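Session log. Operator J.P. requested a structure for one protein chain; no other inputs attached. Running the standard single-chain path with token output.
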Amino acid sequence: MLTRRTAICSIFAAPLLANAAMAGMRRVYAVDGWAIEGIDPVAYFRDHAAVPGLRAQAIGWRGAHWCFKSAANREAFERDPHAFAPRYGGYCALALVQGVLTPSDPQAWTIEGGTLFLNSSIADRAAWLSDPARHIVQADAHWARMMNA
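Structure written below.
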């Protein structure tokens, strides 16, 4: 039976439950602990391709392992990880426009304004590219809210 006290408590508990769910969210999308499924983030910028990294060149950052094809790429990332890491922790950028976190596909990538964005599929990448400036504003707002929850 729903009492007045139960109804009032549930109104105040809902935001707390939402925050608890967000607290368990990982800042970096990683499969079995490997960011970008082991793809070298620096290679997107230098080779313009999704190049597999080597576990021997891996480092830990933000709770995930990041692989690199070479020591030079690893060192570049270590100097400035924010310059190379994908925006939104590597979650699908297009899904984040709707405020949803979904996995990404390392092959569905784009660099916009010097920033790496990943999407969940090539079709989502095409949709993202239809209006990246607007999508970035929308995704940024959702990401900020999620990270501050």
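Operator note: The beta strands are 30-31, 34-35, 54-61, 64-68, 105-112, 115-119.
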